[in-house]
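input
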Amino acid sequence: MSALFLSSLTLSHFRSHKRATLELDGRPVAIYGPNGAGKTNILEAVSILSPGRGLRRASSQDMTRRPEALGWKITADLTSINQHHEIETWSEGGASRQTKIDGKAAAQVALGRIGRVLWLIPAMDRLWIEGAEGRRRFLDRATLSFEPSHAETVLTYEKAMRERNRLLKDMVRDAHWYAALERQMADAGAKIHRNRMDALLLLANAQAAAETAFPSALLDLTHADPACDAPDDPAALLAALEGSRQRDMAAGRTLIGPHRADLSAVYAAKDVPAKDCSTGEQKALLISLILANVRALADDFGAPPILLLDEVAAHLDASRRDALYSEITALRAQAFMTGTGPELFQELGEAAQNVNVTDESGVSQVSQT
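output
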């Protein structure tokens, strides 16, 4: 199997890091240090080497180091399917970030064509018990990992929907104002649904084909309003949008479409919905899905993705932690993992590179051991 990994990473004026450089060789990376030292900031920097706003969904302005507020820059050398790429992404003065690949200006979606990045962070621990928006985002991130153009499709749909919602709030009744927007929504919305269903099938197959210490999840995509019987058919979705105008106008927003979908999961071995599982079981299901995503991508893309696991070891017992590390090394994924101390990664031994992050007067300091 081909490899996908960062061989170098440099952060400049990014969050708590004034300047930090890591030299990497493709092995998992164990990042340890006290809380607040800047460990997660390294993971966030890696996450924005992929399309989107990164694992914190932060603005460019929020990522810049204070008090200088000069802007920030991240550079990286990426090996992907036996090809080498130089990546630069930066923001000046809080402006939208810019990207170059191999010295040429590039759109964010191009990052998804040369590499793949997945992550699991503590904020996702409540995925199964909070609102549907977080689950849609989780599914769309998995979908994007298989189909980089999914991000543009979602943006097209959301832009058209915002315009339609403005018309609804203004009580515009002339159908001509809606026609073009609803066609855009129907075409993009049907594609969003198909992309999501394709991703769910890939995840299900990857879970079924693997023997793992983590529980399998049965996944399903549901809709808050089943007004459209064929959400993957643009014509059916268009008819549903047209038929829902009066009701949507009363609500002041669009009530049908892929933005109203929800992801459900069932702990397969126990036949228990994920929302009713224990905290530990919910975490194990999340890890299982992330690992399934890694396995599926290894087959689909040709190499396992870069994996970001923030504070994951602290919430696992020794046996599950060992199982996680064994799967990561077996998959040959470059996983960036954070924890408060090196003892959390001792099972990895020489299989991992170690990075110590400390804080000195509000400036993160990075050393490799």
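quick obs: The chain has two domains: 1-116+301-369, 127-299.
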